[in-house]
Amino acid sequence: MQVIGSIGIFMLSIAVYALLGTAFCRRFRFQPVLPEVICIGFFLYFAAFQIVALPMILTRQRLHTLGVVWILVLCVMIAAAVFFVYAGGRRHTARSGSFFSDKFTRLLFALMAAAVLCECASAVLMQRNIGWDFAYYIGNMTTSVATDTMYVYDGSSGLMRSHLDLRYALSAFYMNTACISQLTGISALVLQKYMMGVLCVLLTNAVVYSFAMEVFHNDRKKTAVLVTITIVLTIFWDVYDTTAQFLLLRNYEAKSYCANVVLPMVCYLLYRIWKGSGERKNWAELFLVAFASVAVSMSSLVLVPAMIGIMLLAQLLAEQKWDAMLLRRGIYCMLPNVCYLVVYFASTRGWLIVEV
Question: Of 56, 92, 187, 254, which is least surrounded by CB within 10 A?
């Protein structure tokens, strides 16, 4: 029953991401492909959750309090998104067009869908990683549910901390699963390992699909072939030094979302900005992803602003002119992570201690 409940929550999550992503795209007047819309909704969801959860984590509020407040905020967001999407009439947000214009295209998409399902099955049925990280992250969530706290107890030992470890507490990613577990009664282990694991695989392929559509100028046949090849390489190139390790074996971890979803999404958006830096929609989407990156994974703390900074420098050198607008918008996108980095650095030096 818990697995069935997880599937229901998974489908509901995808629907919420699609709705929020559609509202965002309507606001900034652009029409990406549906997989990108879902990715945008995912980042928007966690950006909003971080805004609600982080102050409550740092002030040591109860987990059930966060759950109640978040449900209310989410209901308001969904209502606003529904109004925003449908108030202006039926206008398509995702790029329209027939995905199945001929038999060959249908065959390619069938093969791609089969490959995605095989990758999801590999990520779930062949799960072998049960190491220290597994025990610690799952332990953090199950302990939070059992004690109705957030990051107060150590995930591996179960002992109460003397202070919050901001290495983990600055990101609300795992507390999202803990909230769902407490509200539904479904084990946090089942939700995180299977629901969030499969979601990571699907979002990864959604980013690859969106990137390929941009590179191939909306050629769906080439895109389907590339996504299928990417999946085959991932499944059969499962070695330690590749992202396949995280995607197939540790897909429930925040660092896997960083390696397979956040960083590829940032790379994709930087590519679009490189092609047309003046477009407001690209910068708005990049800011959203950067803002939500730490909420999804603390591993994004330095990596995301570093990628943006390298792109800014490369583009300024390539154009050989001072572009104040490019620099200003890039700094805006890096600013959230820089603020997190300052707080985290202060905690490592002992200047900022949040006692339990």
Answer: 92
Taking the model in full, what pTM does it have? 0.92
Rounded Cα–Cα distance for residues 326 and 68 (Å): 41
Half-sphere exposure of 170 (CA within 13 A, CB side): 27
